[in-house]
Amino acid sequence: MVISLKIWIDISNAPHVRFFKDIIKYLEAEGEDLIVTARKFGDIHKLMESYDIDFISVGKHGVSLYDKLNESTNRVAQLTDLINGEKIDVAVSKHSIELPRVAFGLGIPSLFILDNEHALAANKLTLPLCDRIITPEIISVWNLMKCGADPNSIIPYKGTSELMHFNNFNYNENIFADLNLELNHPKTILMRPEPSLASYLDTDCRQSVLSPIVDVLKDYANILVLPRFREQSEIFEDIENVTILKPPVDTSSLIKKCDLVIGAGGTMNRESAILQTPVISCYPGDTLSVDQFYINQGLMYRSNDTDDIIQKALNFIVNPHQEINFESDDLFNLILDNIYDLGK
Question: Which InterPro entries match (predicted)?
Answer without folding.
Answer: DUF354
